[in-house]
Amino acid sequence: MAKPRKPKPEDPKPANSGAVVRHQKLCLSIDTNLRRIYGYTQLEIEVPDIGIVGLHAENLGIESVLVDGDLTEFEYYPHNQGADSEKRWASAVSSPISAADAAAAAYVTALEMELIPNLLINCCNKMQIEPVNTETNGDQSSAEVKQVLSRDDPPHKTYVYRLDVPVTSQWISLAVGPFEILPDQHNGLISHMCLPPDLPKLRNTVEFFHSAFSEYEQYLDAKFPFGSYKQVFLSPEMAISSSNFGASLSILSSQVLFDEKVIDQTIDTCIKLAFALARQWFGVYITPEAPNDEWLLDGLAGFLTDLFIKKFLGNNEARYRRYKANCAVCKADDSGATALGSSFACKDLYGTHSIGLLGNIRSWKSVAILQMLEKQMGPDFFKKILQAIIYRAQNTTCPVRSLSTKEFRHFANKIGNLERPFLKEFFPRWVGSYGCPVLRMGFSYNKRKNIIELAVLRECTATIDSSVSVLNANPDSENHDGDIGWPGVMTVRVYELDGMSDHPDLPMAGDAWQLLEIACHSKLAARRYQKPKKGSKPDGSDDNGDIPTVDMRSSVESPLLWIRADPEMEYLAEIHFNQPVQMWINQLEKDEDVVAQAQAITALESLPELSFSVVKALNNFLTDSKAFWRVRIEAAFALASTSSEETDFTGLQHLVKFYKSRRFDADIGLPKPNDFRDFPEYFVLEAIPRAVAMVRAADRKSPREAVEFVLQLLKYNDNNGNPYSDVFWLAAVVQSVGELEFGQQSMVFLSSLLKRIDRLLQFDRLMPSYNGILTTSCIRTLAQIALKLSGFIHLDHVFELIKPFRDFETIWQVRIEASRALLDLEFHCNGIDAALLLFIKYIEEEPSLRGQVKLGVHAMRLCQIQAGSVSNEDIKETTLVALLQLLESRTAFNNVFLRHYLFCILQVLAGRSPTLYGLPKDKLPRIGDVEICHEQKNNFAALVAEMKPSQPSADNPSLHDTSAIPEASKELDTVSNSHERKTAVVKIRVKQSATTSKAEEADNGTVERSQGGERSQGKHHDTDRGATSSVSVDAPQRNSAEAVSISNQNIEEVNSFHDHGSRITASIGSAKIASEGDNFGKELQCTADSDNVSVHPDDPSSPSIIQDNYVDAEAQKYASLQTLSVSRHDGFSLGAVDSPFREKEKGKKKKKKEKKVKENKRKREDHKGDRDNPEYLEKKRLKKEKKQKEKEMAMLLSEVKATSTELRDKKEEPTSLTDLPGKKEEVDISSATVQLKPSDPHKVAETRSEPKEGTSAPPKFRIKIKNKTLNKS
Description:
By secondary structure, the protein is an alpha+beta fold. The chain is built from 35 helices and 36 strands. Helix 19 packs parallel to helix 21 (727-739) and helix 22 (750-766) packs antiparallel against helix 23 (773-788).
């Protein structure tokens, strides 16, 4: 029996940990007329011994910063400073490839710089210790909102919002507006809010929500963690994205709301709201321990959502959605970007893995992996695991609210009873790697033995070499022999005459080719041979199209009806099964599983030769009202694809006949008035017009009957007496017009169709439809017809017809659809270059963030169409430069989704994959500080507080040394738990003013300093702020075990790019408070260890990259990430000084080299007979590489040591610590321990080298800087 796992020890934090936020209060005054936000935030912070607190702040106008009520110095410099990059890019861009390289360099550099705090606060002057109350208001946490009326003139409304559950700052969300509040009638903890016009739709939308709320609480056996829950619905143009999550609050688009007359939006809205609630449990309350654990929380939220779908929307809906999601994952899971738990992939993607299609693929894959685990351990055990996670988080004594993949794997072993060898293979293969199994299967029935001989070929969606390299790089994986198998066995289900039987005999590992023998339980009775009927066909059907109804077997010589592989979807696999046509028909007609039916329809649709039996089977399934409606829609489209002149358009006839039997009056031959009370039948009939429009004749044109049928539906639509809206119905018919291909016979109907579309446009303009769905479908259809008939229709006329819909008075959905249609027309008329220029123009004009993102997605699709076409149109350099300028603009900086798609557009134009994964960052062009960010001229820019860098993971063999990749902290709720240092808790009051939602007014200056004048004296300019309201947010107080990180991220050491002042960047840490006996005050100690120093003395603008690969235990103790930037005017750089010590070292090396040459000569003579021995050659090669590394390390250490000696001799040489004029400090450049003594009036830098003997760790240096550098001269 395996020993129980020891409890995880509490790792003591080093004595130099960063600042810790104990409590935060946010007070805002919001001017709704001017769209400005005023106010301040009050932080209770445990200040590090360095005395400098670094915060992340953007789009703020900071008036002053107070520490314990007194003004203090602060520096604020925006990350995006709007530098003019036109000249720079014009000289660097000559082709799409160079533009893609420049975009990658700019994008990666911007992402890295945004990880650095840009608000520095000096807390050295005031270090008054105040007690912090860490007690809570009770065992049950809750969120409370109060309203306080003031007597001010004009009066203000103050809302006090208190959250007693400790959360990180990213989950604090506020929504301010004239909302209508709708309390839930069934649960008093739930509140729904929307703008007044949407209140009727809100009442109808949220009727079901209390059921989902209760279902989650019952399944997890716990109360909702935040005490109350609020849903806020905003206009789509106001929302940042379709859904945003915060603690006890979800902000969604009002586009998902629907009234009692709308049918189509119901299912999607219910699922979206259920997922938002699930994210409150897993994602907001339970947080990932590291970035590569985010997949787990995303998957658990999706798993809860699937439980809701299964219970309230039906098991068929849940299984069908999961099957389609698995198919999408198998097609896209072919690169390292979809490796969920790979730390290298998470670092390489910089947090962009949740954007767009890649985010959906990763989310679907996460849910599929968790469902595979549930199948392995059983639903009850999986439920207990989730309950244990929630119980552990709600424990009042020692709550643990972070979750890691390793901990979940431990739960799967202890609670789920899964064996450790299985888990040791499962997680590295499915979570740490990428690629899904592809199984190609065929069988033969052996009548003599009464067995099935099943042949299986196992492949992978990803390339074998890349998948194996990623898998073998994982230290937890024992699969190092090149096998890309998966753990476990797959079940094969055989349906015979005597029943069904499961055979879990197919191993997912081992040989790629496998032959299985499966015993049959049914036996054939002896039968007399019967001659086939005259005129019969090999498949059993005769000329009249009849098929045998009694004998459902594939042939008279087999007892098999049909066979399925992995019927319960226990594996995320792509299965290609080959069985006779009659067996597929049996599976479609007799199997009640929706997944089996969908697989049968796909197989029958892809047959090279179609028989009448296949068409008849599809038609029978379409007309079966008991079948699941989504699969019936697939059967309708399969009939359309099988309809051709070879089959006399039998599929088209069946579709039209089915529709007319349901919706036409047999007496007059015209459509009946609409009746949508049967929802499944409504969805099936809604899909029939589009299926009919997709039928093609031999000339690839639509048959005349299909065009006439669609026109008839559009002309005689009557919704009188129908209790439901027909807007989605009409939109589907209009979109089917866009699917038609007009030939000579059907061209006569074009004018009638266009008149009907124009009539619908005019009607929708007078009485707008739900979300403008009818107008958007008409615009899309007009654009499609114009592109197909460009030889008959002037595209300029269509352009002018659609252009008025871009007016900003129209609703948001219509404006965006009109912009996309105009981009399509421009692309097909004038090419991709003109379309991109028009796209840039539309982006500059579009005010909504979501609209900009949708336009970016559409432009990327146009670029992908261009890349897949045979046309080789050249993109002008001016267009590429314009895209690069937009990438670095304030617009893209404030919209991270748009910025990502701009990067993807430039990558697609260069023929690359639209992702950050796999970029050769070591080959990207360097972008210095002069180009990306203006020179930071501030009082203490050298003291930029950062978090400790994480070491490069061992499972990332292709990680470039020059790439700086951020990774979130291991514990989001805990940053410092040090027992060695003094806890100096101070209260910081940060006042921020004149912050507008319009980003252009936020950063007029690159640096704000609190020096001199009225600002240093605490004087404020009171302005008339009009009608305002204020919001006060009081976050919970926290004890030392629940401290919240300021930046919430653990940032790796980034590449230091230098300007022409040759500023050198090093890591600073080990901030300790001076001992009581130290009369010189506090000292700041910082250690930066390096084993690889790249210096270019001739080029002062070249980057100096300091790597941290060989850090010994003592050096690692002082390795908190803080940046020291030192500028010298004399061009001095590290490693550029020679010394006598270096000459001595060279002499010693020369002697050692001569000695080694003699020794090697003797060894060569001894091993002359082993020159052909491969083992000897391999050992020799490894030994040579080892010696080469030792040699390089020794040379580096000697150079650094020599530099420190030279610096000690020149310690009186003056240098400048900052770029401020008139301030000269005497500092010796070194990356080492820094001590800051405030009381000494002189500024002297002292450098000492203290390398450890007998170790390969680099030496440490110490620089002492007196406190005057932080005071104003």
